Amino acid sequence: MSTQASGPLASLARVPANLSRHDLTTGGTIMMSVLALSIISSIDLLDNEIGAVFTVGYLLVVVTAPLAVTERGLYVITLMPPVLLVLAMLTIASLNPEALVIENLPESTGPVGHAISATMKNGGILMLGQGLAIVASLLRFWNAREKRIVFYSQS
Asked: What is the pTM of this model?
């Protein structure tokens, strides 16, 4: 025999069901990801060089985006990490090219060249971020599938 939880315990028991109401739209998730990475980049640029803070922040953004979006937007968000990194590198290269430390790069290289070189330099981070985004999306798909199975088996 089980008893019903009341008060704070009842709200804790309903947390997984309530979380899906707070998922962001695809556009909202992209906007929040860009905003978060912009803030992280600004913080990392305080020492005038992109480094570990940007790397950790980028990885956190691309992992949390698939966890925050509605199920319909998972396909788009799974493809977001490379675009996000390239746009971040292009923006940083346009505003502060000295922040992207790339060895043996000619002085005459423009912002696009800096952005391409920085993206290639951060290729491992890009691949890790893309892999983590795919894993997070697969977990969301799997979780949604499990809910449907439980839902249909109860009838």
From this structure: 0.77
State the Cα–Cα distance between residues 33 and 69, nearest whole angstrom.
Answer: 11
**Residue 25 located in a structural domain:** yes
Please check whether residue 84 is in contact with residue 64, taking contact to mean a CB–CB distance below 8 angstroms: no
Residue 6 lies in a domain: no
Q: Is residue 5, in this structure, part of any structural domain at all?
A: no
Contact 92, 55 (CB under 8 A): no
Residue 70: phi, psi to the nearest 5? -65, 160
The answer to whether the beta carbons of residues 131 and 66 sit under 8 Å apart is no
Give the domain extent around 116. Answer: 19-153
**Spatial distance between the Cα atoms of 132 and 106, rounded to a whole number of angstroms:** 34
How many domains does the chain fold into? 1
Residue 13 inside a domain? The answer is no
For the record, the structure tokens of 55 come out as 């790397």
Alpha carbon 103 to chain centroid distance? 28
Distance, CA of 35 to CA of 31 (rounded, Å): 6
pLDDT one-digit tens code per residue, 135-153: 999 988 887 766 554 444 4
φ/ψ (deg, to 5) at 103: -70, 150
